[in-house]
Structure prediction request, 528 residues.
Amino acid sequence: PSGATASAGAPDVVDTPGPVEPVDPADSAGPVVGESDALDSEDPGTLLSQVNVALHAQHLLTRDVHYIVRDGKVALIDGSRGRVAELQRWPDGLQAAVEAKEGLQVTDGGRILDQITVQALLGLYPRKCGMTGTAVAASDQLRQFYDLSVSVIDPNVPARRFDEADRVYTTEEQRDDAAVDHIVEVHGSGQPVLVGTQDIAESERVAEALADRGVECSVLNAKNHEAEAGIVAEAGRAGHVTVSTQMAGRGTDIRLGGRDKEDHDRVVELGGLHVVGVGRFRSQRLDNQLRGRAGRQGDPGSSVFFVSLEDDVVNTGGAGEELRAEPGEDGRLEQRKVLQFIDHCQRVAEGQMLDIHATTWKYNKLINDQREIVDARRSKVLDTDTAWQDLSYHDVEKAGRLQAEGIPQDVLEQAAREIMLYHLDHEWSEHLAYLDDIRESIHLRAIARESPIDEFHRMSIAAFGELAERAVARARETFSEVEITSDGVDLAGQGLHKPSATWTYMVNDNPLSSSGGSVVGSIAAMFR
Prediction:
């Protein structure tokens, strides 16, 4: 649960399929904004949503950081694991905006069929538990969202890893130069080195700088994750240097001495695997995941992080704060208060992500309650003859005619179910789309000194109150008009198409942030 994060729009859900209307790709670019158009018009957030996703794609999503372009398509990167997020995409507007930004063909859009937060999804399980070496750093989230406590189990053999204090520099350039110098020095001793970087672009910069210094290295990132097993297997070999994006969640141990452990004893004598982190993450848990690659199962190991005052975690957690410290000739800041400041920035950044989690939970708590009502109604329609009773009572004449034609009762009941479920799912999908538009623009209510969350709840409850009534009314209309035979109901003949394809995608719960936050998952569908 603590690892359920995704990059902007990452990332990090499961939903129930329902009907969707086709979306014309030509509409993806959005309308032309005229002088008379206003972002706070009566239409709740449609234009503002389009402006937001365009700005998001242009300024908050970076190629080779949040996504890569492969085979003419945009592939998302899971920021918590450094891998391509298979079968995931951003919401249609953002996906289309990024594709347009990269000059690619804009893919067909679809419609959200359902969405749920990871917290709510896990809450559906009657029992929850887990084991990880970094749970302590996520104990607040586990307690707040899942009512889970964390217990520490001592390792079966004493840890022998030495974690050196961070080396802090003024600029990113000075940080990278110092990190490369350090890697070259350690490599000269024969000790294997694992270098952890924040993203693909940085991993490639570090690898290129090492190559310029005559140090060959293996690079593991989302662009070549297919070679992961072979790269990780040899990462502990004497004299080997491996540059990787986030190793969290890869689930493999780096064996000292390589795949065959030929040089195990020699590597142990050299001090084991040495981990170099280039920049701290916003979460201490991810830092610990990287450190934990070394010193496993009682083996020796060491780690050190190179940090700069220009790093993302400092800009995020230290915004508005001033640090007075004198750097050395190489730009290094060795004062104790600098290390304390870096720790402070990380704690603030983590606190901000926790606040985002809490805010998302407040917004989605009501949606979860509404989903339970819809799911209960769907279950009743699926498990009983409620739909047939309602529709046949509404149009007694047609119901009697169908029965007189000798159509089996079970076929009639199934046809009624399909009609009712189609419209119920369609109305729920429409409701979610409406709520998404509201949430994109609701923050503007704060300007009028109104509570955004209270206004969201008010508008959501008002819209939901009419959902079931509309679904039933449209189901009755369809029943009266649609053709029903012994083969079943012909919804397509009425232009009511079921999804021809669905996909599940993960989105960040903070749409204006490039990373962090909990994950909202959705199932979307399209028709062909």
